[in-house]
Design brief:
6 helices; mainly alpha
């Protein structure tokens, strides 16, 4: 990150680069979701969604090796897998397991993975989210047996499972922030 930490709004997305990011490989937990990894990455680097997008976005749609499917975090369509592997020091297998692609076939993602952010309250309160929570055939967390919810417990807002959802900005001005 640049040495000037006075305000992240003063920093341009072009100032974010792999050479100056804060990330350690051991900060990634087994089965952690891409949403959770990107949210944590943004927090640790005081990065906005545009900052993260500029760092990990594919150059074009043709750069995406997994097919032209919906642009959410259930697949890797909104990120360049190579850039993300370099930024977070993860291998391809770990990266794929952070999405629904680790557990579903590419054509199954459309019908079997939620477009809404689904989470277990105890997991999210401990700073963890997994791609398993996005799979529609699970209604409860396998760790806590808690129901998976897709709305803010404070205001009922629904978040889409996209790169924009890593932001702590809540359009409804609810005081509850997902802590991952």
């Amino acid at each position: 990150m640049p040495n000037d930490t006075s305000s992240k709004s003063n920093r341009k997305a072009s100032e974010i680069s792999f050479a100056n990011v804060c990330w350690r490989k051991d900060w990634q937990r087994p089965y952690e979701s891409l949403w959770s990894l990107l949210k944590k990455f943004a927090y640790l680097n005081a990065a906005s969604v545009p900052d993260v997008r500029s760092l990990v976005a594919p150059k074009s749609d043709e750069d995406y090796p997994y097919g032209p499917f919906r642009a959410d975090l259930n697949t890797l369509v909104t990120v360049d897998p190579i850039k993300l592997q370099n930024a977070m020091a993860v291998n391809e297998t770990t990266l794929i397991q952070s999405t629904a692609l680790g557990y579903l076939g590419l054509t199954e993602v459309v019908n079997l993975a939620s477009v809404r952010l689904r989470y277990c309250v105890p997991c999210i309160n401990s700073g963890f989210h997994t791609a398993f929570h996005q799979l529609l055939f699970f209604s409860h967390c396998s760790l806590h047996s808690s129901p998976l919810i897709d709305r803010c417990v404070g205001c009922g807002t629904i978040r889409r499972y996209t790169l924009s959802a890593i932001s702590d900005r809540n359009e409804s001005h609810c005081a509850i922030v997902l802590p991952v």
